Amino acid sequence: MPADGEYTAVVDRFEDDLAVLLLEREGEGETVDDILLPKTELPESGRHQDAVLYVSVEDGEVRDATYKAGETDQRAERAQSRFDRLSQRPSESETEADTDPER
Questions:
Q1: Which neighbouring-strand residues pair with 31?
Q2: Strands of 18-25's sheet, edge to edge?
Q3: Which helix (H) or strand (E) holds 7?
Q4: Taking the model in full, what pTM does it have?
Q5: What is the phi/psi pair of residue 33, to 5°?
Q6: Could you give the 3-state DSSP secondary structure of residue 101?
Q7: Residue 43 burial (CB count, 10 A)
Q8: Rounded CA gap, 103 and 84, in Å?
Q9: What is the DSSP pairing of strand 61-67 with strand 18-25?
Q10: What domains does the chain contain, in order, with CATH numbers?
Q11: pLDDT tens for the 103 residues of the chain, in order
C-alpha cells in the first residue's frame, strides 16, 4: 500500500476493468509503488496506456487524479527520441573505431 502523499502516476496497463498505475515521487522519476484503480475513476482523457497523472493518495486510496496531457506528450517524445537514437546504424567511422585496436 502506498504511503499518503502526492505522486506522479503513469498508467502502465489495464487488467480487465482496472488500471495499474506506477507511482513516482514528484521530481524523482523512479517508480516507488503501484496501485490499482478502476478504469472509470481515471479522468476520461487519461484512460490510455502511458497517460501521466498527478494523484493524491490518502489511506492507501487515490483521492484525486488529474491528467497531465503536456507531461504525457513530453514523455512520449523523449521515449521516441531515445528509440530513434538507439535504432540508428553506427556510421562507418564509428564501426571502425570500435573494431580497430590501434584507435
A1: 24
A2: 31-38, 18-25, 5-15, 52-58, 61-67
A3: strand 5-15
A4: 0.74
A5: -170, 175
A6: coil
A7: 14
A8: 27
A9: unpaired
A10: 5-88 (2.40.50)
A11: 888 999 999 999 999 999 999 999 876 678 899 999 999 999 999 999 999 999 999 998 899 999 999 888 887 787 778 877 888 876 665 555 555 555 5
66's grid cell: 488529474
Q: Write out 27-95 in H/E/C secondary structure.
A: CCCCEEEEEEEEHHHCCHHHCCCCCEEEEEEECCEEEEEEECHHHHHHHHHHHHHHHHHHHCCCCHHHH
Count other Cβ atoms within 10 Å, centred on residue 61: 13
Residue 37 φ/ψ region, left for φ over 0, alpha for ψ in the -120 to 50 degree band, beta for the rest: beta
Q: Which residue has the cell 513516482?
A: 24
